[in-house]
Each structure stands twice: as structure tokens, then as C-alpha cells.
Write a structure and sequence with these properties.
This protein is mainly beta. It contains 1 helix and 11 strands. The strands form 3 sheets. Strands 4-5-6-8-7 form a 5-stranded mixed β-barrel. Strands 1-2 form a two-stranded antiparallel sheet. The chain has a two-stranded antiparallel ribbon with strand order 10-11. The chain starts with a strand and ends with a strand.
Length: about 170
């Protein structure tokens, strides 16, 4: 909290105006879209987004499970405009620590920081990592959100009937 001639502890009477335990008040802030070559000190501690990035450690977990002290695991990512690495730092305390870093190109959104001359980045949750190509071993994916999609209803034996409902694909017989 800025008070007097510098930073001071937030006065107790003002804590609820500056710390939000459940959600940020008002609309969610839009991230500033950057590339690694446009990183600048003015964006430190700002919600930013990098597009068309890939992870150097794709397929590894976000946080090294051997790091038992809760420290951060650095994972580099690069955008298509540069070979300058930005370090994604994930804690062993994160609830997504055992998830795998995605392969291919995608987008990442989070808070940009800097340590000495190294750009660092923290995501808020896995929703901040999106748009990566699906697993190529996946043969067919159907969400059933509004129809049976590419599936044709067919009963091999009996008189079961496939249909779409608001719950997804169902069978009755």
C-alpha cells in the first residue's frame, strides 16, 4: 500500500478494499497481448497473454515432484517471434502441479514478472493455458453438447434407441 513516502502495511480498516478473497470485483481484466520481443518493464506484475507459444519441456509435469520444499520449478516457453525464453514458474503447492505441459503451439495467460534480467511468468490455473493442439492419438472426439454430432444412431441388437438430450447422448430400450 502506498502511504507517506513509500510502501507501508495496508491499514486494517482498508484491507477489504485491497484484498479480495473470493473474486476480483467488477469485470475480469483483459490481458495485454505481448510477444517475448515486446516484453518491457511497464508490464511487470500485469496480466498478459502470449500467443503461439511452445514449451521446451512439453510432456513434463508443471512442477517437479522431487521439489518437496514447495519451491518453484522453472519451465521455459518460447513464442514464434523469438527464441527468447520466458520462464513459467510453478509451485509444488499448485493443484495442477502433476499435470503435463502441453505439446505443440498454444496460448498462455498470466502474470509477468522479472528477476534480474530474466522474464518470469505465473499462471493462475490451467484455464490460463489453452488452445494447444489436441492429442494426435485421439481418433474421434464428440462433446454431445447439442446433438449426436457425427454419430449415427444404430442398435446392433435389441430395440434400444439412441437420442440426444440436454444431458448428452442417451440410450433407451
Amino acid at each position: 500500500y502506498k502511504g507517506g513516502s513509500g510502501l507501508v502495511t495496508i491499514p486494517a480498516i482498508l484491507v477489504d478494499q485491497h484484498i479480495f478473497r473470493d473474486k476480483f470485483p467488477g469485470p475480469v481484466p483483459a490481458p495485454v497481448v505481448l510477444s517475448s520481443i515486446t516484453c518491457a518493464d511497464q508490464y511487470i506484475n500485469t496480466l498478459v497473454e502470449f500467443r503461439y507459444v511452445n514449451f521446451a519441456d512439453a510432456g513434463a509435469v508443471y512442477a517437479d515432484p522431487l521439489n518437496v520444499l514447495g519451491g518453484m520449478t522453472p519451465r521455459n516457453f518460447y513464442d514464434t517471434l523469438s527464441t527468447t525464453a520466458i520462464i513459467l514458474r510453478s509451485s509444488t503447492y499448485a493443484n495442477f502441479k502433476n499435470n503435463l505441459l502441453p505439446k505443440g503451439n498454444g496460448n498462455i495467460r498470466g502474470i509477468l514478472t522479472k528477476y534480474n534480467t530474466s522474464w518470469q511468468f505465473s499462471i493462475r490455473d490451467l484455464n490460463d493455458v489453452y488452445g494447444f493442439a489436441p492429442d494426435p492419438s485421439l481418433i474421434l472426439k464428440e462433446s454431445f453438447t447439442s446433438s449426436l454430432g457425427s454419430f449415427v444412431p444404430y442398435s446392433v441388437t435389441g430395440n434400444e434407441v439412441w437420442a440426444w438430450t440436454s444431458y448428452g447422448a442417451t440410450v433407451s430400450g
